[in-house]
UniProtKB/TrEMBL annotation:
The lineage of its organism: Eukaryota, Fungi, Dikarya, Ascomycota, Pezizomycotina. Keywords: FAD, Flavoprotein, Membrane, Oxidoreductase, Transmembrane, Transmembrane helix. Residues 218-249 are annotated as: Disordered. This is D-aspartate oxidase, variant 2. Residues 219-230 have a biased composition (Basic residues). PROSITE patterns: DAO. One of its GO terms (cellular component) is cytoplasm. Its cofactor is FAD. It holds the Pfam family DAO. Residues 33-324 form the FAD dependent oxidoreductase domain.
Amino acid sequence: MRLASERGREAYVARAHSIEYWDSDAPRDKIRAISEYLEDFRVIPAHELPSGVEYGISATTVTVNAPKHIEYLFRRLRDQHGVRFVRRRLDSIDAAFASPDTKVVFHCSGIAARTLPGVEDGKCFPTRGQVVLVRAPAVKSNVMRHGRGYETYVIPRPHSNGNAILGGYMQKGVLYAFFFLVVAVVVVLLSLLVSLQSSLCSPFPPFPLDPLLCPPSPHQRHRHTRRRRAPSPSTPPNPTEPCYESANDASTYAQESESIVSRTTGLSRELREGGLEVLAAFAGMRPSREGGARVEREERHGRALVHNYGAGGTGFQAGYGMALDAVAAADDVLRELKGDDGPRSRL
């Protein structure tokens, strides 16, 4: 919230009214926890809930223009903290320790953690999703509905000429037919810790900000240019009936886009009344993990290896907290490096 208030335009983050619905099994413990720090928190009375919804909350949280926010973080680390970014393919996690100067490795390879030698975490799996990018200037609020077997959400992109992301799908994968390019990261992150602690005064909101919100590659993009009015709410196509070939399929499908538009316009009054222009549809694989994310330290070659992966569809929601936990896990090493006049930090 502090980042949105003080550097919102620079960081592409904005305060936003947010609504979250559950058709069933609302996580009451989580809701009690977030009610202690979210502004304007309110349990929505039953008579205000949409048909089929069991429980709902509203609050003031934040919304993120994901691709632009990543660029902001990159520039801040590079320009203000002297972090150097090096892309390199490694044959195993042990190769990240090739330099004797490396004291700590932060491992953030996502789905590749399943096959990366030295890690080979069998709990990792891809979760396929498809989203639709629209121009909808009237949309100012985050809205999410957790249905029985589906997820529906509307997320405005701040400082983007009125764009919004509509979703979505959560299709768990069981096949691993595609090759993962492993980009291993060697990090000394004391500067990142300072950066994160100075930017945030509370956790990110409990509204998942999906890794699929990043720009699609050309082969993933499915463009539309025709202006269309939002359809009236109706019974949407069944979002639990996939039309994809496998959960590793990054193609986009018109049937899924139509389902997303139908469900989201039924969910969001702003979208329904303000109209929308469909710009693109794209799909991708979320880096999921059975049992949740792994943020854990182990010793490798007498040095620290900190794992930080498996956030699934909540990477932008949980990313800051996971980063702080990962840095805390290597606090002793980082404190020692702080007093070292050796090489500058590398990411």
